[in-house]
Amino acid sequence: MCSSWMMTDRELELYVHIPFCVRKCAYCDFLSFPSGERERKAYVDALIREIESRKDNFTDCRVSTVFLGGGTPSLLDGEDTARLFDALYRSFTFVEDPEITIEANPGTVTAEKMISWRKSGISRLSIGLQSVNDEELRMLGRIHTYREFLDTYSLARDAGFGNINIDLISAIPGQTVKSWEKTLRTVAELAPEHISAYSLIVEEGTPFYNLYGEEQQKELFSDGKISSPSVGGFPPLPDEEKDRKIYEQTAVILNEYGYHRYEISNYAKQGYECRHNLGYWERKEYLGLGLGAASLIRETRFHNTADMKKYMDVFSDGTPAENVSGERNTASAGTGEIQSENSAGQDDVREEFESLSREEQMAEFMILGLRKTAGISAEEFSSLYGTGIKEVYGSQIRRFEKEGLLTEEDGMIRLTPRGIDVSNYVFCEFV
Description:
Blueprint lengths: L9 E9 L18 H17 L7 E10 L7 H14 L2 E11 L6 H9 L4 E7 L3 H7 L5 H13 L5 E7 L6 H12 L5 E6 L7 H6 L1 H7 E2 L2 E2 L13 H17 L3 E4 L2 E3 L6 H7 L4 E4 L4 E4 L2 E5 L3 H8 L34 E6 L2 H12 L6 E2 H8 L3 H14 L3 E4 L2 E4 L1 H5 L1 H6 L3
Parallel strand pairs: 1-2, 1-11, 2-3, 3-4, 4-5, 5-6
Antiparallel strand pairs: 6-10, 7-8, 9-10, 12-13, 13-14, 15-17, 16-17
């Protein structure tokens, strides 16, 4: 690992998108698709060009976290991953002890890759398991079995990874409270440092939506009663009562194993909270690199194109990297300031610039900050926006306190356990 380190003023997080996977899972609406080795190498070449094109835009920043997400970043071979990180270290200034995460799926990992990742400075591994039940894995469209996950987990520990997250999904079709408890306890007994437990969301455009979307649900339910026990051979989604029991069970069981809930869907051993994700919820600046990657810079949101041809045309056509980024819509050298008056030009991949108003910034502060179990600081709100939090949101805060959904203590406003259960209802009131 060869990174530069010096004292600069601003903290910056990096997200690097790897859009490739073996095959699309039935529930996945992320920007991802199958690929061959040649396509992956060409994409890494282009991604390195993009990284190098941004290097002069953030010279006043220190990178505190890097997150390689996807897709399935572990599909890349060790050499390509190393080339990618060499480019990042050459192009950005890093803090002394950055958190660097790579997402990995069982069935795509080797001991050689693990060793290469460690040499590249990757310090945190996020493994997509989802369930310990092979039938549930099959239904989700996962490419692996639980046994293959165990092999991957063992390889990670043998390679020296001491900070591992395991992703789980609840409310899977046909899932019972008992089967979810088995998944939680089985994973917790492995003692990973972090567990993410998300409830299944049926997203439009996915195979699951064709089975369990709104129109399909109208056919399944009549007067509140299930009219059919299955959908095309698949079991129905857990009903509302079962879903709630599964949700409530998660915090109780993981607490037994020493995991504390620090965000609505995330649990960690003490000191192993994900710094990168906390940055999102605390509205730190982040730069997205790669196909479709989103950014927040100087209170301006934008994202890279999701069009692979356009992305590759820009960053793999032989144009020198320093000439690729363009002048009209990229960060100004050394400041990271975004000129949002123009949409992406022909010489760049950035799209949909949105400069956030003061009101939008305050709303995001509330919605994202309340996702953390620690809550939000009234003092920080006042410091950032020059006004008291109750001057802006006093009526909402008082109402939710009366309803038992919010509580205030020592200047911190946070969701109550009941408030966490209906968090979306609370968040909507701050939009």
